Amino acid sequence: MRAAIMAVLVSALTGCAFYHAMPLNDAARDKALAPVPIDRVKVAAANLEHPLVKPLVIDGNGGFSPDEIAVMAVIVSPALRALRDQRGVARAQVIQAGILPNPQLSESIDIPHGNADPSYVSAHTLGLSWDVSALLARHDEMEAARASAEAVDLQVAWEEWQVAQDSRLRAFRLLAMRAQLPLARAIEGGLEANIIALRQGLAGGHKTMVDLTGATDLLTQARKNRLTLEQSITADRLALDIALAQPVDYDIQIKPGTTFPVLPDDSRATDELLAGIENRRFDLVALALGYRSQEATLRAAVKSQFPKIGLSFSRASDTSDVKTLGGGVSIELPLFDRRQGVIAGAKATRQQLFDEYYARLAEARAQVQQILEDLTATRAQLEEATRSLPDLEQLAAAYDKAFQSHNADVLAYRDAQAALATRRMEESKLRQDVLELSVALEIATGRPLLDRTPPS
To answer: Is the pTM of this model over 0.90?
Structure first.
């Protein structure tokens, strides 16, 4: 019998996992922080399988488009690598939920002692017992674990899309801000030249201190705007470096590569974008799966009220060498613990998820409506700024011609140039706002809306 027990123990140990060290050392750091080779990224981008981020052929010639950067971020982002590890945890919970409790095997021996009767022998007892009550809630626990794992998969996919959209948005923003920076510098340079001219006019008695003070205030504001723009460029560049797992001094080259269709602004567009939003936004679908998991958890908690039942079988012999076979049933008496706290906690958690789901749904609907209204207002401002540009260009050209022929004051000439540069910056900023709102609309609706076709 001991041989049988040892065989069982050896068989069980052969299926055990073993510990392997995973230290946080210099070698691990260098390997984890090493940039992924671009050739591997290109292969992964062309074969990407994702419900929202589509595969893309990356050529890299002349830089990377915002769409290419978005796909690259999904593939190499260190933050997403850590997030994807949650899938392993969720799958382990599914495995654990399907495992039944082990039976218990016991053996005991009683050796006669202090007795001279030679007919007495050693007594043996061999027992086998198993808690069958685990079968009651097993189905519900497995369903809860599977739903939770599906929710984690969707939540990871949603976060991957969020990272892709954030990187894409930063790429668009960098394109716009890098185009605005020369205009900001030109405005600052023109105002600096104005200060010099005003000082000369003040010395000759043609200008007043009020004129100089006003120009100085404008220059201070222009310099502040330029510095803010440079800081924003640096911040977005660093954020992209982190998302793309690149060194912080890496300056990614970005090229335009996306055109945007004009979304209709009427009520039908709102109805179309809101229709089925709870089935398109993966965060909402993940919440619904989380709710389903909690429903199963509550059912398992209710079933766990049933008294625990244990079955046991035994084979024994006493010191008189009388052999017996026996069996038994043990039933828990639920006099005090009837799982009241577990059931109450499961119910409260289910109610919390129920309310959170509908609160998130209402927030998503309101967010879509707000973005559409902001898009309408921003497009109107962009049209007005674009419409006024030709007049300012003609005015600046006229002052330039007059200045070259010495028929215009240098301050008036520079003011016209500054007004034109300022309006161009306003137009560029408004175009940037439209792009950002369009990407925000994609995120809020949970589906790609913008055209990914490069302009011809």
So the answer is: no
127 is in which domain, residue-wise?
32-112+122-445
Nearest to 256 by CA among 380, 385, 432, 382: 432
The answer to the question of residue 273 being in a domain is yes
Q: 280 burial class (0-12, 13-18, 19+ CB within 10 angstroms)?
A: middle
Helix (H, G, I), strand (E, B) or coil at 52: coil
- Dihedral pair phi/psi, residue 276, rounded to 5°: 70, 25
Mean pLDDT in residue range 45-66: 87
The answer to the question of residue 178 being in a domain is yes
* Assigned domain for 455 exists: no
CA distance 211 to 197: 11
In total, the chain counts a number of residues equal to 456
At 123, phi and psi to the nearest 5?
-90, 140
- Which CATH number characterizes residue 220's domain? 1.20.1600.10
**CB contact set of 149 (below 8 Å; sequence gap of 6+):** 87, 90, 91, 93, 94
Nearest to 156 by CA among 97, 79, 43, 246: 79
- The structure tokens listed for 151 are 């929710």
Q: Give the SS3 label for residue 374.
A: helix
Q: Exposure string (b/e) for 52-80, b if CB count within 10 Å is 16 or more?
A: bbeebebeeeeebbbbbbbbbbbbbbeeb
Q: In whole angstroms, how far apart are CA 332 and each of 100, 131, 156, 307?
A: 19, 11, 42, 5
Residue labelled with tokens 């982190």: 242
**Which amino acid, residue 207?**
K
132/124 Cα distance (integer angstroms): 26
Average pLDDT, the chain: 84
Cβ pair 165, 258 in contact under 8 A: no
Give Dmax over CA atoms of the chain in angstroms: 138
From 155, 5, 4, select the one nearest 80 (Cα to Cα). Answer: 155
With a cut of 80, say whether residue 9 has pLDDT above it: no
Q: Let me know: does 278 contact 359? Beta carbons within 8 Å.
A: no
Is residue 23 in a domain? no
Neighbours of 410 (CB within 10 A): 16
CA distance 77 to 170: 15
Tell me the mean pLDDT in the region 314-329: 83
Number of structural domains found in the chain:
1
- Cα distance between residue 42 and residue 46, in whole Å: 6
> How sure is the predictor about 454, in pLDDT bands with cuts at 50, 70 and 90?
very low
In terms of Cα–Cα distance, which of 452, 356, 450, 373 is closest to 57?
452
Closest to 320 in 3D by CA, of 134, 119, 168 = 119
Burial class from Cβ neighbours inside 10 Å (0-12, 13-18, 19+) for residue 430 reads buried
